[in-house]
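G., the chain you wanted modeled:
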Amino acid sequence: MPIENLLIPILKFEPQNGFFRWPKEWVLASCHRSDEMALSQLTKILKQKHSKTTIHWNAYGSATLRLLREHRFTKESYQLSIERNKITIISGDDAGCYYAIQTLIDLIKIGRLRCGTIKDKPQFHRRGISLDCSRGKVPKLTTLKNLVERLAHWKVNELQLYIENVFQFKQHPNIGRGTHPFSPTDILELQQHCQKHHIRLVGSLASLGHMEKILSIKEYQPLAELPGFRGHPGGTTLCPTDPKSIQFISSLYEEYIPLFDADDFNVCCDEPWELGQGRSKAKANKLGAGQIYLDYLLKLHRLCESYGKRMNLWADIVLKYPQIIKKLPRDIVLLNWEYEANGPRIQETKQLAEKNLNFMVCPGTSSWQTHGTRLGNAMDNVRHFAKTGKQFGSKGVLNTDWGDNGHRNLLGLSMHGFAHGAAHSWQPGKVNEPTFTRRYCQQTFGKDYRKVYNSLKLMGSTYSQNGAPWFNENGLYFSLVEPLMKTRENIKSRMDLLDSKKCQLLLKKFDALNLSIESKPLASFDKQTLKDILCGVAMERLALKRTIIGKSLRQLGTVDKTECRQLKKEYRSMAKQFEKAWLNRNRPSRLKDNLNLFKRSDKELEKILKKL
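Predicted structure as tokens:
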């Protein structure tokens, strides 16, 4: 039944007898020009079904599909009525009509249209995606536009691009140099595209922690809290007690914030690891690190207010120092993040609600530091967090996708997580979890979906099957590029933690996948997603092979020469595949860093072969 197979579930369906009779020509009627984008999307789908379409911009006359507005409907809600000879959509606003058409498009793709009435509305006001654009991959503008269209189809209404240094600041030209950064024009063009699809583009800029890339530049190192922390020249955190730090951030905001129309702005301020340990230590010892953090937040808050923005920030440090909560401005929005299925901050959501604070729950795709995903963890994380958010009055769900340690994880491997998060953002508690991944693959990749489904399921499970389940990562991500022979640099080697026998069993499963680009035509966005999955499979398979060889070298001091030669050959092929997949969707940015890791692995294999 099409209704039950919808990827983004609906609130309610009231069935009636019979089915919609497909006409030779569809007449689409609306007296609102704002419906043009959604109607053009529907027209493309009907064309694929070999149906002619005509759009009438009027309120009266016969029509196959009519779009109406009524004030009784709440924001983004809609009613979709399917009768034998006509379909009627009623909503209170443009977004509601847009979402109704997205539902209709999916129903048409799935099968026959059953007569009845759909009554639907979102359970969360903010339904967002936070996309990391600073750890390696800076997406092309066309990639972001295509992503916006897909997210909007899934009824996502907010996009944040997480930015540390990948923006062209006129006052600070060295910050984005060499990263292929976004320009102001890029942001404005993307924002215009977002608005067409009822998505708010919300600014997001690191403003305290995660500043290591900027602080590595000599001219900004005097702003550092603890230079040299974790091997970074300027550490990772601005000194919050240095007046020049807030002056610096003010100069960034001056160029960046005015680009965004959205009322919200994310100042981030998560994980300032050196807080109170360096230049602010004396003051922190006197007042407490929490008070130092609060004082800095209040300065950022005044900056946001001056631009008419509501300050959003990650909630980890506020929860660490709960004594500062009562002193926080009441208009801020705390972004409570937690990426483990049952992580502690999920339950700490209750504390934010009890303090009458605005907040959002922020799960993750679990796609970073892995070549696929930690699929089970990701789905449980989203489900538990959305349920908790609904229980305690969250303003929304912000599903996050990161790129730690080089950002080798490709966008295509995050799409399932985006869809799953979108489903729980729209109707938490109504998502059919056991069948979701199968339905996602079927509706994205068509009749040959089973191979993709098997690949996603296998890649999504290696983190729990390789003998070394690890917090927020998959050990195979590191063993792909970690030196085969143990050195001082990798004393805490992931490869040592992996189980050779379990890796051998997994390798057999990967060898049996037989995934390829099928001849069946796909939309270009979905075809690239499939290529990303293929590349992820290749990287995971090679990581398993390399782990098995590395374990043998470390434990026995020897390895089969033929296997080494084959691995070397496959590495070169995989590197080319990875480079192509990266450049198809992203600017060069840190591609070279990853390719250098592959080259280093290739050279190491060459040295080992000479010794064998």
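The chain has three domains: 2-120, 126-429, 448-611.

Shout if anything looks off.
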